[in-house]
Design a protein that fits this description.
The protein is α+β, with helices and mostly antiparallel strands. It has a domain of about 40 residues: 3-Layer(aba) Sandwich (YefM-like fold), CATH 3.40.1620.10. About 20% of the residues lie in helices and about 20% in strands. The protein has a three-stranded mixed sheet, covered by helices on one side. A hairpin with a 2-residue loop joins strand 2 and strand 3. The longest helix has 9 residues. The chain is elongated, with a radius of gyration of 28 Å. The termini are far apart. About 0% of the residues are buried.
Length: about 90
């Protein structure tokens, strides 16, 4: 069923509007006498819509190498000349 709600009334009727949408009603928001929006519930999610479309690599959950965590051989560091973060390079303020 179509239900029109003035946009000025929406804050006051928000909970009611959500319940109406959940029950399958079409909610049309009216501003200045004309429809400005239609509210509708999201369709249910379809699981396994495209089975096999995404496959994890066999080593997906293997630990990452130390080079990853230490920024060694990082192409961004080399390309942009960014300094490596190394705890031994930090200077302490005395």
């Amino acid at each position: 069923m179509r239900i029109d709600i003035d946009i000025q009334d929406l804050p006051r009727r928000f909970d009611e509007t959500l319940k109406l949408m959940a029950s399958g009603d079409e909610i049309y928001l009216i501003a200045n006498g004309s429809v400005c929006a239609k509210l509708a519930p999201l369709p249910p999610r379809t699981l396994n819509l495209h089975p096999g479309a995404f496959q994890l690599a066999p080593d997906f959950d293997d630990p990452l190498p130390d080079e990853f965590w230490l920024n060694e051989d990082d192409p961004l560091m080399k390309t942009h000349g960014l300094p490596r973060h190394d705890s031994t390079d930090e200077k302490r303020a005395d």
